Amino acid sequence: MEHILTALIPIFLLILTGFSFKKIDFPSSEFWKNADKLTYFILMPALLVFKLSTANLNNLEAFDFVVTGILAIFAILVISIIINFKMKSSGAAFSSVVQGAIRFNTYVFLGLVSAILGDEGIALAALLITFAIPIINVICITVFAFYVNDTKATFMGMIKSIVKNPLIVACLIGGGINYFDFYMPIVAVKFLEILSATALPLGLLSIGFALDLNSVKEAKLELIISSALKLILMPLVMFFIGELFSLDSSLMTILVIFAAMPTASSSFILARQLGGDTNLMASIITFETLFSLFTVSFILGFLQYLN
To answer: What would the pLDDT profile of 270-285 be if each residue is shown by its tens digit?
Structure first.
């Protein structure tokens, strides 16, 4: 348990530090908007290319690993739809519930996997998100189209968002270099290593700066349901599916961490663009980010006990 807390607490201390910067507006709101762009379009893709291209992925149960993650995502989606039949939430509110229940914060995910499993863990995590990000995007856009009935949610728009996603492109490049065994000059490897070193710290600080505690005061039942689905039920579903595939402990740990992650901050942007409930989405993002410190600690402690 001490090892888990040693890995987990620094991640959340960085988020808390980012939040403290927000309270004093340091260095400025404009700085953090630009920092988000730098991290998303340059630093994080550099990290994924570097880790995937240099990782040893031999003898990996890749198919079972990825399928487990995808099945858990769809299982939570189905459960969300069933719950909504009873609750009869508005389409806008339900779209936020789904985003809160199946999307994940990439920065927290990679940061925690790196702290617990090191470079090999990041490479495996990158392999998972290569498939998870486009599937989750398709699900979320489809939910907006069916429940919000917003004409902005088009099929071509969905395809473009996937093809232009820098994290997916980076995973494909890094995975391609690794799979086809392309030679990378030492200079290029060192360049990527240095460039990517700041990706996770800066990304985690940005998460803290984006937190909005005031939004949680307007909590609704949908907030509790979405957070329970994401932080409690999804890790359990992921664990049981992983057991069915008899995955080894390292793969299972990555999948359960993935399942237990708070939703992505970018969920708010999608909700705003496509007619979702932005107030609910902001409260879900903040609540899950803060509360995940406790749920992730418990879940990883439980995994450690089983192993």
So the answer is: 888 788 898 899 999 9
Q: What is the dihedral of CA 182, 187, 190, 196, to 10 degrees?
A: -80
Separation of alpha carbons 304 and 230, rounded Å: 21
Tell me the pTM: 0.90
Q: Let me know: does 220 contact 87? Beta carbons within 8 Å.
A: no
Report d(CA 267, CA 95) in Å as an integer.
10
Written as six digits, the tokens of 1 are: 């348990």
Q: Say if CB 189 and CB 54 are below 8 A apart.
A: yes
| Distance, CA of 19 to CA of 17 (rounded, Å) | 5
Can you give the residue ranges of every domain in the chain?
A: 2-306
How is domain 2-306 classified at the CATH fold level?
A: Na+/H+ antiporter like fold (1.20.1530)
Q: Is 194 exposed, middle or buried (0-12, 13-18, 19+ CB in 10 A)?
A: exposed
Q: Residue written as tokens 């992730």?
A: 296
Pairwise CA distance, residues 261 & 198, whole Å: 21
Interior angle at CA 103, CA 124 and CA 154, nearest 5: 115
Q: Which residue, chain included where needed, has tokens 């996770």?
A: 200
Torsion of CA 168, 143, 153, 223, to 10 degrees: -90
